[in-house]
């Protein structure tokens, strides 16, 4: 895997799929301390609010977070990561759909305890980046993303159902 060295100087291994390709992650995960100069650190919702809701920031939401307060600031965010603490918690899927339907056009990342079998459904809900807690699952997830060539139902990634696209 490729490594990236952000401004902090510590190397970070590539461990995410963005738009179907395995790429180096140029964002640092959330931490208790505030980001240093030049660091692209994902902020928690509380950190982002404490910092005055800075534009161009990366933001992490937990499945239980209410995105309502940040809906007016979506255009100014570069990245929103939805953290999946356990793979059985489906609230992140709903959160992604709500963010996309509210107009968020930046990188929407699912991160945490994900299964490769969820990759296709995560994309259908609006995620365009997947960061697995276990980076050994990247190849399996890429395979799962290629399994279906057409979807019958409408979703965030293709609003029109198949019968409307054929007309």
Q: What does this molecule look like?
A:
There is one protein chain. The chain is built from five helices and nine strands, in the order βββββαββαβαβαα. With 167 residues, it is an alpha/beta fold. The longest helix has 11 residues, at 91-101.
Topology:
Elements: E1 3-4, E2 12-13, E3 16-18, E4 21-23, E5 42-44, H1 45-50, E6 58-62, E7 79-84, H2 91-101, E8 107-112, H3 119-125, E9 129-132, H4 138-145, H5 162-166
Parallel strand pairs: 5-6, 6-7, 7-8, 8-9
Antiparallel strand pairs: 1-2, 3-4, 3-9
Backbone CA Rg: 16 Å
Structural class by secondary-structure content: alpha/beta
What count of helical segments does DSSP give? 5
Work out the number of β strands. 9
In helices, the fraction of residues equals 10-25%
Q: Please give the largest β-sheet.
A: 7 strands, mixed
Query: What is the averaged pLDDT score?
Result: 87
Straight-line distance between termini: 44 Å
What string, H for helix and E for strand, traces the elements in order?
Answer: EEEEEHEEHEHEHH
- The shape is globular
Query: What ranges have pLDDT less than 50 throughout 5 or more consecutive residues?
Result: 1-8
**Spatial strand sequence of the major β-sheet:** 4-3-9-8-7-6-5
């Amino acid at each position: 895997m490729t490594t990236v060295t952000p401004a902090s100087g510590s190397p970070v291994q590539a461990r995410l799929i963005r738009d179907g390709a395995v790429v180096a992650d140029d964002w640092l995960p959330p931490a208790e301390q505030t980001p240093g100069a030049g660091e692209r650190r994902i902020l928690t919702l509380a950190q982002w609010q404490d910092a005055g809701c800075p534009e161009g920031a990366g933001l992490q939401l937990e499945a239980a977070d209410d995105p309502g307060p940040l809906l007016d600031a979506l255009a100014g965010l570069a990245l929103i990561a939805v953290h999946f603490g356990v793979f059985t918690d489906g609230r992140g899927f709903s959160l992604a759909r709500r963010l996309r339907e509210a107009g968020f056009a930046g990188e929407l990342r699912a991160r945490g305890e994900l299964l490769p079998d969820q990759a296709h459904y995560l994309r259908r809900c609006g995620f365009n980046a997947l960061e697995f807690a276990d980076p050994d699952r990247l190849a399996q997830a890429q395979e799962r993303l290629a399994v279906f060539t057409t979807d019958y139902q409408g979703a965030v990634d293709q609003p029109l159902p198949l019968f409307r696209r054929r007309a």
